[in-house]
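Hi R.,

As promised on Friday, here is the backbone we talked about, encoded as structure tokens. Could you run it through your design pipeline when you get a chance and send me back a sequence?
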């Protein structure tokens, strides 16, 4: 369509952003053109190796930047007396996750046929227990393990960022009422064992991949729901913040310290997601691969705007005012929702999938309050529930997915992560305790445990 839009047509376009129940036609967007799909015009293998490695490095940079996004969202959503604690937790969890993934997690998740339990050539249940080892310094093309893929170092660098992301999800849910050291011990177990085992069942060629045909392109379930299940188990055992819920079931609002910081964090996460999803193509050595990377990034953006618009419109209808925190989480839920399959949808369908993620957030946040589950930043609706939805939605656009395979895989990972996490949290609660004293919680974790206030002049 060419030419300028008339005001009437512009208004009509704006009205279409109400989309969420009126977009079935957009689900019929054309699949990728055959000319793009079949355009596997390959470069020489060593050049493909270089390009693939470059993609993983750039993707890793972007996913690393998501650590700043999580830190800013959490800093903005918690009260001012707990901001330094959240910043410290985000620095520390990244360090712990990176070390744990090197020590155990990477080879446990990607055993490369070396399964401890299960088939030697894949389809197993438990990978290898060994440290990550990088390729030799200055290798030549004939020394690379797989010259058509990428360097081991870049693959580890990219994958460890995903591991840290799963841990970041837990941090926000349990904010303001958990001590530092038990949280970091749980993070160690999550990133060394729980996340890598769950990930190996699909991405490491394990049984969910070989027996159930499970599809999860960039981790709506493997990363986001894993973090969400671990957070839910912790929130149940930890309990709510003091004063959050009244005896009569009413909820006391506890506004965050800075909506500018929370909004900044959302945009940082949004940017990082282009690497999270785009580089999960894992290759750009052909015309088809590069075109797919661009398609993935465009659909990732569409998922985010669908979630933001849905949350904005729905809160305006339900509460007569637009809730900024819901819009922030709506955008993030849209991103989580499209992560399981960002390649095969068209832009319209990607927007719809993200939009339903935004709707989930608006209804799930008050639902958790009714259940008296205190989730400070809304991570359970955003990462767990939208992650489940996004994984199911794969069947809408990818003919290789089956509803049975998706559902049973979601259930298996959910039961495994929740049960193991609950046991670890329970042991930590029984041995060293999870919560600070009531006096320390009222004082704030910045003074009680960190010793450095984020806003010392505002007392």
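Update: got your reply. Pasting your designed sequence below so it's all in one thread:
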């Amino acid at each position: 369509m060419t030419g300028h839009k008339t005001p009437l047509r512009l208004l009509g376009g704006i009205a279409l952003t109400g989309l969420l129940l009126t977009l079935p036609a957009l689900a019929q967007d054309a699949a990728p053109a055959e000319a793009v799909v079949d355009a596997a015009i390959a470069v020489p293998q060593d050049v493909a190796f270089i390009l693939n490695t470059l993609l993983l490095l750039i993707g890793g940079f972007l996913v690393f930047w998501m650590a700043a996004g999580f830190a800013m969202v959490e800093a903005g959503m918690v009260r001012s007396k707990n901001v330094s604690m959240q910043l410290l937790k985000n620095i520390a969890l990244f360090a712990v996750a990176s070390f744990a993934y090197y020590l155990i997690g990477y080879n446990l998740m990607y055993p490369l046929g070396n399964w401890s339990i299960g088939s030697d050539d894949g389809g197993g249940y438990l990978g290898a227990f060994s440290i990550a080892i990088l390729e030799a310094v200055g290798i030549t093309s004939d020394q690379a393990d797989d010259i058509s893929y990428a360097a081991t170092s870049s693959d580890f660098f990219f994958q460890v960022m995903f591991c840290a992301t799963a841990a970041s999800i837990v941090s926000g849910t349990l904010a303001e009422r958990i001590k530092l050291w038990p949280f970091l011990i749980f993070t160690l177990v999550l990133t060394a064992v729980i996340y890598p085992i769950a990930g190996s069942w699909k991405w490491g060629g394990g049984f969910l991949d070989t027996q159930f045909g499970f599809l999860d392109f960039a981790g709506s379930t493997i990363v986001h729901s894993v973090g969400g299940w671990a957070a839910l188990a912790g929130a149940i055992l930890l309990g709510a913040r003091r004063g959050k819920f009244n005896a009569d079931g009413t909820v006391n609002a506890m506004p965050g310290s800075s909506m500018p910081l929370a909004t900044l964090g959302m945009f940082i996460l949004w940017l990082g997601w282009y690497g999270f999803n785009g580089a999960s193509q894992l290759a750009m050595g052909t015309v088809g691969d590069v075109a797919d990377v661009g398609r993935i990034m465009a659909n990732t953006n569409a998922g985010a705007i669908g979630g933001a618009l849905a949350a904005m419109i729905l809160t305006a209808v339900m509460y007569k005012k637009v809730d900024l925190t819901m819009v922030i989480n709506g955008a993030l839920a849209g991103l989580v929702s499209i992560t399981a399959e960002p390649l095969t949808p068209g832009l319209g369908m990607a927007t719809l999938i993200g939009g339903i993620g935004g709707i989930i957030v608006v209804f799930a946040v008050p639902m958790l309050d009714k259940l008296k589950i205190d989730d400070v930043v809304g991570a359970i609706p955003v990462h767990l529930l939208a992650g489940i939805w996004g994984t199911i939605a794969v069947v809408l656009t990818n003919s290789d997915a089956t509803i049975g395979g998706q559902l049973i895989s979601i259930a298996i990972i959910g039961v495994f992560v929740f049960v193991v996490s609950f046991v670890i949290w329970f042991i930590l609660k029984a041995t060293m305790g999870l919560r600070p004293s009531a006096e320390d919680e009222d004082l704030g974790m910045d003074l009680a445990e960190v010793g450095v206030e984020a806003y010392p002049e505002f007392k």
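One thing I noticed while checking it: The two ends are 58 Å apart (CA to CA).

Thanks again,
M.
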